[in-house]
Design a protein that fits this description.
The chain is an alpha+beta fold. It is 42% helix and 18% strand. A six-stranded parallel beta sheet has the order 3-2-1-11-12-7, sandwiched between helices. Strands 17, 18, 19, 20, 23 and 26 form a six-stranded antiparallel beta sheet that branches. It starts with a strand and ends in an 11-residue tail after the last strand. It binds 5'-O-[(L-methionyl)-sulphamoyl]adenosine.
Amino acid sequence: MEKKRFYITTPIYYPSDKLHIGHTYCTVATDAMARYKRLTGCEVMFLTGTDEHGQKIEDKAREAGVTPQQFVDGIVQGERGFLDLWKLMNISNDRFIRTTDGYHVSAIQKIFRKMYDNGDIYKGTYKGKYCKPCESFWTESQLVDGKCPDCGRQVQDAEEEAYFFKLSKYAGKVQHLLEDTDFLEPRSRVNEMVNNFIKPGLEDLCVSRTSFTWGIPVDFDPGHVVYVWVDALSNYITALGYENDQYDDYEKFWPADVHFVGKEIVRFHSIIWPAMLMSLGLPLPKKVFGHGWLLLDGGKMSKSKGNVVDPYILAEMFGVDALRFFLLRTFPFGSDGNFSNEALIQTINVDLANDLGNLLSRTVSMVGKYFGGQLPKDQARDLEKDSDLITAITHLRDKYEEQMEKFSFQNALAEIFKVIDRANKYIDENAPWVLAKDMEANGPRLAFVLYHLLETLRVSAILLTPFMPASAAEILRQIGADERTSTWESAVSWAALPKDVTVIRGENLFPRIDAEKALKQLEEAAEAAKKAALPALELEPQLAEKVDFDTFCKSDFRAVKVKDCQPVKKSDKLLKFTLDDGTGTDRQILSGIARWYKPEDLIGKTLMAIVNLPPRKMMGQESQGMLISATHTEKGEECLNLLILDDKIPAGAKMC
Ligand code: MSP
């Protein structure tokens, strides 16, 4: 029988900055869905990729002194880039599209021409407001307090010759699609689209630009590059082979079953994308699902706010599976959720270490302790004591499936953890350690209790596979499940494991996390990351006001030898110098350099000082001049270097 097919996509991400936990959230959710569908027997196409054109990238590349292509290559393929992150996070995408891929570029030119030829694209003048960071055009009425409705930043006036897509022509059809079908989910997003964008009147969409060059050229009108959404949205079909020979899966996988997208780009996916497809005469995707944002302190994460959370740091500290699990266990997929390290640690400790981890390690170790690692076939069931858990396990797959089909990852996981909780209670109710006191009388009963726990773990691990692929496989290995007893089908059959199953003790899968220590470590890592993002070197770019030569010559700079140097009591900044300035009388100077120098290291050194400044008091002591040093900022740290002269320069030598 031919397998059912399932095509799922993430948005293609902008390689303008490194990815953060918010991007990881969407990709992990898509991966869980793709893995779930594979588990249920579907042939899956899971697409992700990068959206590499546009003015922002062009600007960033210029700032970095590289070509736009070099810039995006670095972020996508470079160390700790997009590809590395998806590999680390165990993302099982079948395809990865880059909009700079040659096949995509030529397909977009054909798509643009098709829409032009059928009269849906025309040339006009663009007048409006443009948000550069978001690369979005807005009409006056769409602005919020005169600012970009997406990011709240200032917008600028824009006017230029441009091609337009007749989006207005499709307003009625799109409204019908949104209101009368379940094309867009969650349903709450439908009203927003219809009321905010369609009802006020859909305006035609600017689809080419002439003011930057980093884009796909319109082949019949040099000077124009295809502007963002035609290029970006079409990735979902070009990656299957639409209008190109690179792939041949268009017939097989289009229309997509679902596009997962963040809520701010629902507008593009639920209005522009269907209208474009209608223009091209192509079938529409079956569903667009707009998920919520992961917020930090109530706001969206963004590099410019400096509040991004680095998934590399979290995955390396807590493990990839724990992080994947946390993201989907904690936040309802359709709504916003507040990310915090505390919640992450709590989820790991409660769900994974306490509930699941304990259940696994207790069960496997009891099979080892009481039966040498292999259960006997002779087992005694107790209808009254066992039926509750048996019912829970046998219904689990259906309940889970119902939630997964609605993309309710949080609820699907909650169903699994209800059963895991029940199993932990079942251990207490049956007290295996008490049964073990009289093996002759209770051996068969004890064997059944443990078998029952192994079965709970088996079904749970199968259903956890999409969320925690490596850990679920390890659980299945430890409880002695094989390929046949690890399938989707076997997740509804109670007692699939052989009665005399052999378990394999393994490592502790989810060690408990010392919250205090971990939070401190995270704080340090965040601090280090912030520092790393600071400019390497900051110098004062502005030269000081000019002084005339005579004024300059009045300054008396001299070489001075350090006869003594002491810290100043009650000051952690000042050092007190006794200096030979060549006059025969000791000179005392106080200098705020204790952060950088130890007094004993400076004794005997020859320094440079200005000696004709009026004396001034510091911490009650007189300072007769100032030592000369160079200062700059490096990675946010203030740096200071005293001007240390060659020892052969005598005290009192003048600088001229
Ligand atoms: N390039 C466009 C998408 C084109 S799709 C044809 C784009 N790229 S993006 O990199 O800015 O964002 C990609 C996705 O990441 C969006 O769906 C966005 O909602 C999601 N997220 C970015 N920050 C996020 C959070 N803090 N939380 C959840 N998702 C977030 O838009």
